[in-house]
Design a protein that fits this description.
- It is a single chain.
- The chain has 20 helices and 21 strands.
- The strands form six sheets. The protein has a six-stranded mixed β-sheet. It has a four-stranded antiparallel β-sheet with strand order 7-15-11-13.
- Helix 14 (333-340) crosses helix 17 and helix 17 runs antiparallel to helix 19.
- The chain is 40% helix and 17% strand.
- Strand 5 and strand 6 form a beta hairpin.
- It is of the alpha+beta class.
């Protein structure tokens, strides 16, 4: 262990402190510290091979993506005596994602009580870091608990005053309402004037003119870039789509099959997955469920999976959606209102992941777990305010010749004073207010202010191309409102999940009761119809 480039000097707490660990109720009375924090890749690079696997083996229910600080929290808790306490400093990630699940969640579920926490403290030193100070008691703690100086009934692993410690549950009510777009696996399917792999659009028109039947298998094709950058969210590409046709059926469109055979098949044959090779004329992931869900709709809601801003927009349903688009078979303005509201956005930003400094909206984490208001898709108030917001935003983008990204860049810019942008902010607040009232949470204020998405002490600096990199300002709710809404949503998620479980059990009971009744009825009929045989008892 001591040798090699990344050798370590072993340290055994029991041996070093025998007076602490040889006594009854062993362990330290108190621990204070500022443990290191480092992400997965930094931890792997700094230690010998197998270190991450060892951590997961030693600390049950831990996650490989966790920051190493969570393991220091676990170890500190482990070497406390019953009734002991620790006070540790960590970055704000301690209460988020896999780091929270590995550290505070496990501690809270195993007789640990967070009795004091101060969140979002600026580090007093030179480093531009925001930290949390957390005090944990090992055992049942019945005294006052303080969260940011305020007395609260509990402090969860999320460092909220409510909402529980566990990850939110998937809502059965959200089933079959969200899908990823098609992974076509081959740009050779497309007609596009901006890609060397694609066929020029002029050739597409020529093929249709020569044989109108070709139009049956050519569709508009749109991805996240067009949705976010085009003022009208208009596609500029088309794509060949054979759906799940067998090969002989697809050859009924020889012009199109020749293109796919030439531009897609060679790469597919080198793919490791047998299905991709065998069905080279079909998309890699066809999303049949998506097509079935949207078949009866004129329009659907979409959003880009990766984006600086969480933006939802309508698209006609008769097109192929790229795999970085999330698609929702929802057509009401009320649905748009619920998704575009800040209530949903703070959930998505908290439970979603990130790519660089952009939100990655994964539907399993952000949509399927979200507890929407009751009857949110048909709520008339949400319908009215959603319609007003959507139509004003659409007209504004056309008027300014700016897409969603540019529009929301202005929306979140503290220096922006344009009257239309100011109105859009007011309409957004009205939308948030309506959604909060749909939950019955009219006590929550909807006032916004400009806050940094993350702390950045450096002045605006120049990028490689000479342009200034702007600070990550966002026009949003205060942290107190943010935390209050998240805590209530987590409570609601757990409440709904329990109701769905109970509802499922009740349905099972009902089904069993019906089956038993049917069985009994059948038995009676057999008894009535059966010939009299000595010794036969059907009771």
């Amino acid at each position: 262990m001591r040798s090699g480039d990344k050798g370590i000097i072993p340290f055994n707490w029991d041996i070093e402190f025998p007076e602490v660990f040889d006594r009854e109720n062993s362990g330290f009375d108190a621990i204070i510290g500022n443990p290191p924090f480092a992400g997965k890749n930094t931890t792997i690079n700094a230690h010998a091979p197998g270190y991450q696997d060892w951590l997961k083996e030693v600390y049950p229910e831990s996650h490989g993506n966790s920051d190493i600080v969570a393991f220091f929290f676990r170890r500190a808790f482990e070497i406390l005596r019953e009734g002991g306490t620790f006070g540790l400093i960590a970055t704000n990630t301690i209460a988020q994602g896999d780091t929270r699940s590995t550290g505070l969640r496990w501690i809270c579920q195993n007789k640990g009580t967070i009795y004091n926490s101060q969140k979002r403290l600026k580090w007093p030193g030179l480093a531009a870091v925001v930290v949390s100070v957390i005090n944990v008691f090992k055992g049942i703690y019945n005294k006052v608990k303080l969260l940011n100086g305020q007395e609260v009934p509990l402090i969860s692993a999320f460092l909220f005053h409510a909402g529980g410690n566990e990850n939110p549950q998937i809502m059965l009510a959200n089933k079959s309402k969200s899908f990823r777009g098609s992974c076509v696996l081959g740009m050779g399917f497309t007609f596009d004037n901006t890609s060397d792999e694609a066929t020029p659009i002029a050739e597409m028109y020529q093929l249709i003119e020569e044989n109108p039947k070709n139009a049956e298998r050519i569709f508009p094709y749109i991805g996240g870039a067009e949705v976010n950058s085009s003022p009208t969210q208009t596609h500029h590409r088309y794509i060949i789509n054979f759906g799940d046709l067998a090969e002989d059926e697809a050859w009924n469109y020889p012009d199109l099959m020749n293109i796919v055979e030439q531009k897609v098949k060679p790469k597919r044959l080198s793919d490791n997955r047998a299905a991709y090779k065998k069905y080279w004329w079909q998309y890699g992931e066809k999303r049949v469920e998506l097509w079935q869900a949207i078949s009866g709709l004129n329009r659907v809601l979409v959003n880009s999976e990766v984006s600086s801003h969480l933006c939802f927009a309508y698209q006609p349903s008769n097109r192929v959606f790229a795999h970085y688009l999330n698609v929702y078979p929802l057509s009401s303005f009320a649905s748009f209102c619920g998704l575009q509201s800040r209530i949903h956005e703070i959930w998505a930003r908290f439970f979603g992941s990130s790519l660089e400094d952009r939100l990655r909206y994964t539907i399993s984490d952000c949509f399927e777990t979200f507890p929407f208001p009751e009857n949110w898709e048909t709520n008339p108030t949400l319908e009215a305010v959603g319609k007003e917001y959507y139509e004003f935003r659409a007209a504004l983008m056309v008027r300014n010749n700016q897409g969603l990204t540019d529009t929301y860049n202005r929306f979140h810019d503290p220096e922006e004073r344009d009257a239309d942008i100011l109105k859009l902010r007011l309409l957004h607040a009205a939308m948030d207010k309506a959604v909060l009232e749909a939950y019955g949470w009219s006590d929550i204020p909807t006032d916004c202010t400009f806050l940094l998405d993350y702390d950045d002490e450096n002045e605006e600096e120049e990028t490689d191309n000479g342009r200034q990199r702007k600070k990550p300002w966002r026009y949003r709710w205060t942290e107190e409102v943010h935390d209050e809404v998240l805590a209530r949503l987590l409570d609601l998620n757990q409440e709904r999940a329990n109701m769905e479980i109970l509802g499922g059990k009740a349905a099972q009971k009902k089904t069993k009761a019906k089956a038993s009744k049917k069985k009994a009825s059948k038995a009676r009929k057999i008894k009535e119809d059966a010939p009299i045989i000595p010794g036969l008892n059907l009771e």
